[in-house]
Design brief:
The protein is mainly α. It has one domain (3-257): Up-down Bundle (Growth Hormone, Chain: A), CATH 1.20.1250.20. The protein has helices at 3-35, 37-44, 48-76, 78-94, 102-116, 119-128, 133-163, 172-194, 207-227, 232-237, 239-257. The longest helix is centred in the first third of the chain and has 33 residues, at 3-35. The N and C termini lie far apart (42 Å).
Length: 263
């Protein structure tokens, strides 16, 4: 095993648990609006049509800001930008506990899409800073596993919070939005300290592994720039990009129809 391989294994063990946790919280904050539906509507009087519009408007905000958010991640660094995304989306998600009208619901859901935009593609971009193409499928697969973990643990947690209805004068759905939103913000603060932008910055890697891993990733990046699209418009015309976008969209539509996520 080479120094680069050992460095990649060490990076996987250090970074992936935090990225998985972030992914779980991301899906949880998307799905909780579905868990709260009946109690939320009963308390606020929001109609079925208004609820459906508010749940779906999340995607508009997300789509509008997704690409600019990824560009900001590349400019400011993954640690700083992913932390910002988590802290702001957690606070906005928690603010759903104060919603009482249709307009407030639309505004908060739209803002939630804006604040969470760029998280998923940002993490995928971040993984390219650490892992070569040969490892990427396995690493991405581990990250995707966070969605399944959210289904397993998110339901019981949301159900428990809904069941404490009336505690301290709050509805169960208010507890759910508050706790799950603030949990995301707290983890956002933690990853500021736990993530590292690139192998060059990883003081926790032994020097030979750090140099070898950095060199391997840099060589791969140089090869990509030499053979890939020269600018964004060319990339958007690439059939492979369009194919991946279409398959990703189909996957998300199937997930939405399952009733698990609302974004």
């Amino acid at each position: 095993m080479t120094d680069a391989d050992r460095g990649a294994d060490r990076a996987l063990a250090r970074l992936m648990p935090w990225l998985l946790l972030v992914h779980v919280l991301s899906y949880l904050d998307r799905a909780n609006i579905g868990f709260a539906k009946n109690a939320f509507q009963a308390s606020t009087g929001i109609s079925e049509a208004a609820y459906a519009l508010g749940a779906g408007i999340f995607s508009i905000g997300y789509a509008l800001v997704e690409i600019p958010s990824n560009l900001m991640l590349r400019r400011f660094g993954a640690r700083r930008w992913l932390s910002r995304i988590m802290v702001t989306w957690g606070l906005v998600s928690a603010s759903l506990m104060f919603v009482r009208t249709d307009t407030q619901f639309y505004a908060v859901r739209f803002l939630l899409g804006i604040t969470e935009a760029g998280f998923f593609p940002g993490v995928i971009l971040y993984l390219t800073y650490w892992f070569s193409d040969a490892r990427r499928a396995r690493v991405n697969g581990l990250f995707y596993f966070g969605a399944l973990l959210s289904f397993v643990f998110g339901g019981p947690l949301s159900g428990f919070l809904l069941d404490i209805d009336g505690t301290l004068g709050l509805h169960g759905w208010q507890w759910m939005f508050m706790v799950e939103g603030l949990l995301a913000s707290c983890v956002g603060v933690l990853i500021w300290f736990k993530l590292t932008d690139r192998p060059d910055d990883a003081a926790w890697l032994p020097e030979p592994e750090r140099r070898a891993l950095s060199a391997a990733i840099a060589a791969e990046e140089h090869a990509k720039l030499a053979h890939g699209p020269a600018h964004a418009l060319a990339a958007l015309r690439d059939w492979r990009v369009l194919y991946l976008a279409a398959t990703s969209r189909c996957w998300r539509r199937c997930a939405n129809r399952s009733g698990r996520i609302s974004g």
